[in-house]
Design goal:
The complex is a heterodimer of chains A (about 160) and B (about 325). With about 160 residues, chain A is of the alpha+beta class. Chain A has helices spanning about 25-30, 90-95, 105-120, 125-130, 140-155; strands at about 5-10, 15-20, 50-55, 55-60, 75. Chain A starts with a strand and ends with a helix. In chain B, the strands form three sheets. A five-stranded antiparallel sheet of chain B has the order 4-5-8-6-7. Classes of the chains: A alpha+beta (about 160), B alpha+beta (about 325). The complex binds flavin-adenine dinucleotide, iron/sulfur cluster and FE2/S2 (inorganic) cluster (FES) (2 copies).
Chain lengths: ~160, ~325
């Protein structure tokens, strides 16, 4: 099957790529664009390791086709830190030891970013409700929830 | 995934010509949260995938003097957060809230939610060529049937996976369908089909038809509705059993009732005996209990799923008490 030319804005940069209609956005990010921060856990919408923000909405990139990125704005985990500074969410995940093996971490951080973009001061139940689409098999979630709440405080205090 | 061509539809009038006469020819993609999974697991291998998201004006929630109209491409997240839906169509907003995960609600549409394919684990595995895929038997009959039907089963025993469908049915909804000869409207009660009439499909849609709109009549002044869902995991999970109910109660007396069970049958399952029993009754614990018994009358559990009868009775009882 012939490949399709797609243009999208990825982490603020105009990007062009070729993909087959059957390739998921996750495959395109990882295998075509070499943005391997987004992870493949389940490949079916259950784990959230592949989360990206598409036109301002959190999505599972494993359930979106690459061709559907045409004309869209996409933020991946690679877009969060600047060369000299981690994003507050990344910093707080480190400080709270909110990761062990780390495979779920990009997905959690992107999900939390989408939440804080919409709701800068979430309550703990709101954080838990929002992270329901992310699986972690190591940390037990509590440290992750604390890290997200601290990151919200850090953003508010301009840290 | 097999290769396919990806085609962007541009208008409702032209979509029939992009679709085919058979399901192997073309399939519709809305949010893709179910369809992409089906493609990956090789459950379907269409030549064309026709994208509805490029048709302008199919995502909206509008209310007029008689009804609420929801465009088929409206996302579950937009329905969940809509104040009119929250206030006047509680069953739908409560159902939307417990569908899948935030990520999937952000992408998944209401049209896709009611047309999603079954979750029977034999169906979802390439290794089991069951009746639903054109094979010669239903593996659930002799296999593990914990999550299968207690009503309306045979020859396939799937349960309909949609959370929104029971709510839309309890709210007396209708669907607008674009056919090759023009639009038509059918009640939710007549949209879904049992396996005994079409073992390979779950509704009346033909391969070249799409849903364009859901219509919910505005509730009467004393009507109230709700949706209750029991699932194994509190995060992402399909319903083991759910209930959607709309009751009209005046001075404690039930005037009208619509009660629909989810997770128990191949279609959202109306409970006419319970509804008839409730009409004219003063709501009490005893009445709610009898309604629950009436709702589950005639259930035919399989080897592993009798527990669904117990859960369904409890849900009907709670729903009647909460709305009474
Ligand atoms: C991990 C996971 C968990 C889930 N949990 C739940 C849950 O708890 N409750 C629940 O209800 N659902 C659940 N789902 C199913 C989820 O896919 C739907 O909720 C979603 O709404 C489907 O919408 P969509 O737009 O993505 O559909 P698509 O995947 O685009 O389409 C689904 C099907 O409907 C057809 N279709 C789509 N739109 C139309 C239309 N307008 N006219 C005709 N046919 C159409 C497609 O051809 C396809 O066969 C879950 C899915 C996943 C992956
Ligand atoms: S219940 Fe239906 S989908 Fe599941 S194995 Fe039986 S025929 Fe197939
Ligand atoms: S890899 Fe996409 S949700 Fe698990
Ligand atoms: S840290 Fe290992 S899965 Fe989350």
């Amino acid at each position: 099957m012939s490949r399709v030319h797609v243009q999208a804005r990825i982490n603020g940069e105009e990007t062009e790529f070729l993909c087959e209609p059957r390739q998921s956005l996750l495959e395109v990010l990882r295998d075509v664009l070499m943005l391997t921060g987004s992870k493949e856990g389940c490949n079916n919408g259950n784990c959230g390791a592949c989360n990206v923000i598409l036109d301002g909405r959190l999505v599972n990139s494993c359930l979106v086709l690459g061709v559907e990125a045409q004309g869209k704005d996409i933020q991946t985990i690679e877009g969060l830190a600047t060369p000299d500074r981690l994003h507050p969410l990344q910093q707080q995940f480190l400080e709270h030891a909110a990761l062990q093996c780390g495979i779920c971490t990009p997905g959690f951080i992107v999900a939390a970013k989408a939440l804080l973009d919409k709701n800068p001061h979430p309550t703990e139940p709101q954080v838990r409700h929002w992270l329901a689409g992310n699986l972690c098999r190591c940390t037990g979630y509590d440290k992750i929830v604390r890290a997200v709440l601290s990151a919200a405080d850090a953003v508010r205090d301009g840290r | 995934m097999q290769s396919f061509a990806y085609v962007n539809a541009t208008s409702v009038d032209k979509v029939a010509s992009l679709l085919g006469r058979t399901w192997d020819e073309a399939q519709v993609i809305a949010g893709g949260t179910d369809l992409v999974g089906e493609l990956k697991e090789h459950l379907i291998s269409p030549k064309r995938v026709v994208n509805l998201k490029t048709i302008p004006g199919l995502s909206y929630i509008r209310q007029d003097a008689v009804a609420l109209r929801i465009g088929a491409l409206t996302t579950i997240a937009d329905i969940e957060s809509n104040p009119i839906v929250q206030k006047q169509f509680a069953a739908l907003s409560q159902a939307a809230m417990v569908i899948a995960s935030p990520q999937i609600r952000n992408v998944g549409t209401i049209g896709g939610n009611i047309c999603q394919r079954p979750r029977c684990w034999y169906y979802r595995s390439e290794d089991f060529p069951c009746l639903k895929k054109g094979g010669d038997r239903c593996y659930a009959v002799a296999g593990i049937n914990r999550y299968h039907a207690i009503f309306g089963g045979g020859p396939s025993y799937i349960v309909h996976p949609s959370d929104s469908a029971p709510a839309l049915m309890a709210l007396n909804g209708r669907v607008k369908i674009m056919t090759s000869t023009g639009p038509k409207e059918v009640g939710m009660d007549d949209f879904f089909t049992l396996p005994e009439t079409s073992v390979r499909r779950e509704n009346i849609l033909k391969p070249n038809e799409i849903i364009t709109e859901i219509i919910l009549p505005n509730p009467t002044p004393n009507a109230k509705s709700l949706y209750l869902k029991v699932r194994e995991r509190q995060s992402i999970d399909f319903a083991l059993v759910s209930v959607a109910a709309m009751l009209t109660v005046v001075n404690g007396v039930c005037q009208e009732a619509r009660i629909v069970l989810g997770g128990v049958a191949p279609i959202p399952w109306r409970t006419p005996d319970a509804e008839t029993f409730l009409r004219g009754k003063k709501i009490s614990e005893a009445v709610a209990n009898s309604a629950a018994e009436a709702a589950l009358e005639g259930a035919k559990p399989m080897r592993d799923n009798a527990y669904k009868v117990t859960i369904a009775k409890a849900l009907v009882r709670r729903a009647v008490m909460a709305l009474g």
